[in-house]
Specification:
The chain is 28% helix and 32% strand. The protein is of the alpha+beta class and 206 residues long. It has a domain at 11-109 and 167-204: Electron Transport, Fmn-binding Protein, Chain A (Pnp Oxidase, Chain A, Roll). Strands 1, 2, 3, 4, 5, 6, 7, 8, 9 and 10 form a ten-stranded antiparallel β-sheet that branches. Bound molecules: flavin mononucleotide (FMN). Flavin mononucleotide binds at residues 35, 38, 51, 53-56, 67-70, 73-75, 132-133.
């Protein structure tokens, strides 16, 4: 980090967004007390009513931003319906925000299997035991479900449930925001017409 606290000098000089995002995430990993990869995920339902909740970013490269979830959850159904989503990272220690928007694709089965296999055994059981976003009659019902799947998969590998996988947001917009004095913040947005297009860079009023 340079003396003025900006990655590689003035971040608004950056020519492309992926390298800059990786630098900011790395700095957040060093400075945030927990979950530097936590991000607000916005979706819309079939009536156009927005919905937002946190998820954990589990993959990132020039193809996009990946997170994992239950595809039968509310977010899962909304994304499968609209095929679009947005993300908002806020790193409090760095006073920085990154916004991402774009169409969404499903990761390959091989990619989802590989990530599922890295999860703690309890989390893999949890993916089977939780009917995410559907009414739960009692905490006891959840614990019973966990006990049942723990017994079922007592021996051997735990397979990935067919309804549990990852989404990749393929960005058409990535906006970087950095706190500056008197709320005269720095903002730059990288935009492209489609995930295959070339980036345009626009500086914006704060
Ligand atoms: C910091 C944080 C990280 C989370 N990460 C995930 C995640 O990666 N995947 C997930 O399905 N839910 C995650 N959750 C739970 C979601 O916020 C949400 O409660 C749940 O997925 C149900 O959302 P839905 O009903 O809109 O589908 C996380 C919650 C928090 C607070």
């Amino acid at each position: 980090m340079s003396a003025n606290g900006l990655t590689g000098g003035d971040f608004t000089e950056s020519g492309e967004p992926f390298k800059l995002f990786r630098e900011w995430l790395k700095e957040a990993e060093a400075s945030e007390v927990n979950d530097p990869n936590a991000v607000a995920l916005a979706t819309v339902d079939e009536d156009g009513l927005p919905n937002v909740r946190m998820v954990l970013l589990k993959g990132f490269d020039t193809d996009g931003f990946v997170f994992y979830t239950n595809f039968e959850s509310q977010k899962g159904r909304e994304i499968l319906g609209q095929k679009k989503a947005a993300l908002c990272f806020h790193w409090k220690t760095l006073r920085r925000q990154v916004r991402v928007r774009g169409p969404v694709e499903i990761v390959t089965d091989a990619e989802a299997d590989a990530y599922f296999a890295t999860r703690a055994r309890g989390s893999r059981i949890g993916a089977w035991a939780s009917k995410q976003s559907r009414p739960l009659e009692s905490r006891f019902a959840l614990e019973k479900s966990v006990a049942e799947y723990t017994a079922r998969y007592a021996i051997g590998e735990i397979p990935r449930p067919s309804y549990w996988s990852g989404f990749r947001i393929r960005p058409t917009s990535i906006e970087f925001w950095k706190d500056q004095k008197f709320r005269l913040h720095d903002r730059i947005e990288f935009r492209r017409p489609s995930p295959e297009g070339t980036w345009d860079k626009v500086r914006m009023y704060p």
